[in-house]
Hints:
By secondary structure, the protein is an all-alpha fold.
Amino acid sequence: MSIKKKLLKAALKKEIKKERRKRAATPLILRIFGKIFAILAAVYAALFAVFFFDLDGKLMYYVVEPFLVKHYDKMERRNPLDVPYEMKKSE
């Protein structure tokens, strides 16, 4: 192995040790809060996208409403016009 490669390898090892010391110096609680903040930021961005592009309304209009219309159109209903007039008075 050449001297340059050995020196580069040694320098890289020193840098890695420095990074490990820095990370170990960072309190665990700050790392946890950082991860929680990142997760909350991603959730906020997703909810903002839903609001901005009105994705919930589009879902209701294109998916849910046709399903409900199809379901309720198949239901059997009592026809009030078929009931004799005498029975309507007593109700």
